[in-house]
Amino acid sequence: MLSELVQLLGKPISPPNSRIRGVTHDSRNVTAGDIYVAACGASHDGHDFIADAISMGAAAVIVDQSRQSLLVDSNIPGWSVGDSRQVMGFVADIVYNHPTQHMHVVGVTGTNGKTSTTHIIAHLAKGLFEQAGIIGTLGAFSCGVLVPGQRTTPEAPDLQKMLSRMQSNSVDMVAMEVASHALMHGRVNGCLFDAAVFTNLTQDHLDFHGSMESYFEAKAHLFTTHFDAASQYGKCPFAVIGIDTEWGNRLCTMMRDLPYSTYSVSAGSSADFGAANIRLAASSTEFDLLYNNRSFPVVLPLGGAFQIQNALAALAWFIGAGGAVADGVALLRTCPQIPGRFEIVPSELPFAVVVDYAHTPDGLENVLSTARELCSGKLICVFGCGGDRDRSKRPLMGSIAEKYCDEVIVTSDNPRSEDAELIIDQIIAGMSSHCVVRRESDRRLAIADAVTSRVANDVVVIAGKGHETYQIVHDQVIPFDDRLVASEELSKCS
């Protein structure tokens, strides 16, 4: 291991003082034998906690080259590098014995659809692999155990450790959500991908990326830099690209001689995988798969027209990985419900309540357009926007909500450090009163308002938080689950 680290990082300023056992970037989590990586974060500089890491038993420290004196002056074992955050994944890959060299790894990136696509892929993987794992927004899932996570894509040391544990538990395939932040911050450095899926690109995270162009470039790294790395280690990566946005078509032109397939739900598209004769129900979707000049009837037990794109992406991966189309279509029939994705809240009442994670303009439009098709009564939407995130999408989401709904109740999401009432103001600024609009910053009261006095065939959509079981208000994390709250309020209507 040490020889590999020297090959990657160069000769250490001082050799590690004990056997290396792990890697962490969090000084609070250091255990004896860990390499502590002093990385700069959004609110803290890891270099400030080197003494803490050493006191906890760190075997060595990695610092930015500009901070090399911290090691030299104190005779601390370790290395200095150009950017400690960017090497962190490669170091963890070495320390945890290169887990992705021994697994089939699929990375799924895009603005919307990552969670659903990874879950459908992992379900289809039953036809090709012994054990499939999932890493993403809902946490890490393998061998029947769910470990909740804080990020869509974990930090590099946590990710590599997680992958190593999966491999030791005989997981031979992993479907992983790969966020644009993760690509920019090097969280998947050291991961070798066998395949990658691009779902779509619509407005989100512009507070971080600055422009759609930069956002796209971050996503594209998965198909360029990371595919090149996988090829160097003998893997033959292939891509699955959704071409219902211009960005997907552009990504196709960047694939050089690497294999890829395309999918689209647009009529008349030249995509390799398409859909026709779409039939929607609240808890299921049926369509005809168009592939290789043939048509295959598909029954997917998931509600939402947007799930068709996710199913096409998963089928394209399955066939690209060596599966038969008939087997993939058969497996889709038993696909389990994905938490917080067009999830129907159980009730005996004659109207439907749907909880969905939609938190972008495109995501909200997908959910509401589907709900509108299913709704023969009134469509009511409860939603807000997260604080300390892209503010430019707030009025856009207000405009989309009133486009499809008869009533909109604008509420708080995770306001974080912002004033929830001001966020609501910015959402309502995009609305022109084409429907009934009410504001209620208390999310529980907003949900109660939405489900009260509903009649047969109405549909209530509670959007924005989906599977989340908390609400972040200032520095407090408050227990809050839209599904549980909706169920409690529905019980009062019985």
Mean pLDDT: 94
Q: Structural class, judged by helices and strands?
A: alpha/beta
Radius of gyration, in angstroms, nearest whole number: 24 Å
The proportion of strand residues reads 15-25%
Please identify the top-level CATH class of the largest domain. Alpha Beta
Overall shape: it is globular
Based on the structure given, which CATH architecture of the largest domain is correct? 3-Layer(aba) Sandwich
Number of strands: 23
> Can you tell me the residue ranges where pLDDT is under 50 for at least 5 consecutive residues?
none
Approximately how much helix is present in the residues?
Answer: 25-40%
Number of discrete domains: 3
Q: Could you describe the largest sheet, including whether it forms a barrel?
A: 8 strands, mixed
- CATH superfamily annotation of the largest domain: Mur-like, catalytic domain
Distance between the termini: 64 Å
| Number of separate helices | 18
CATH domain topology of the largest domain: UDP-N-acetylmuramoyl-L-alanine:D-glutamate ligase
Strand line-up of the largest beta sheet: 8-7-6-9-5-10-11-12
